[in-house]
Amino acid sequence: MNNITHLSKMFESNIRLQIIASLYQGDLSYKKLKEICHCTDGNMATHLNKLIQNQFILKHKVIYNDKPLTTYHLTNFGKDEFQKYVAVLQKAIEPVTEEENTNHDQ
């Protein structure tokens, strides 16, 4: 079985995992991420800041229709780390082949 303990600590939080998975599909606004994650402003800010500090996401602020709009973007590093995480999970749930079973029994 695969050991997932070497993966980034960013995936230990369900909220951060949801943010990363959501941004994997494309850029999203703060409002939309908050809606997806069902959390408070304080909780959301904490998780977003942690992801920014660890270079998983970038924050963009612009003025749109005379109002501030904050959007978030998954970095290439964030995408790579998420893909590694998904690959390890997929490997962990793959059925063990008979040959692998034989090798482990020896």
TrEMBL record:
Domain (Winged helix DNA-binding): give its ranges: 15-92
SUPFAM superfamilies, per the entry: Winged helix' DNA-binding domain (SSF46785)
**Gene3D superfamilies this protein is in?**
Winged helix-like DNA-binding domain superfamily/Winged helix DNA-binding domain
Q: Which InterPro entries match?
A: WH-like_DNA-bd_sf, WH_DNA-bd_dom, WH_DNA-bd_sf
Q: What is the designated name of this protein?
A: Winged helix DNA-binding domain-containing protein
Organism from which the protein derives: Massilimicrobiota timonensis
